[in-house]
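Q: Could you fold this chain for me?
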Amino acid sequence: MDQTDISLHQATHSDIDLIVDMRILFSDELAGKQDIAAEREMRANLHGYYAAELNTTCLCWYAMAAGEVVSIINIVLRRQPGNIKNPSGKWGIL
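A: Sure. Below is the predicted structure, expressed as structure tokens.
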């Protein structure tokens, strides 16, 4: 594959269906295909989460290669009381 065909895009609310589809594919690979009711529930929960949190407490990018989405990455932002190693208390979890 020519590396010039690879691009990275920050997800927006118009990309939520794409993100959810990729999360479902990941879940299927991780735990096996779930029954239709479990997948529907997960899909609904993911839609609700991304609708509320995308680009606020959750940043998401997706990678495209040769015009096809091949991967996503999320960074969940969290703030907690600071400590000696992280005085700001700001964390980003991949």
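A (continued): The mean pLDDT is 95.
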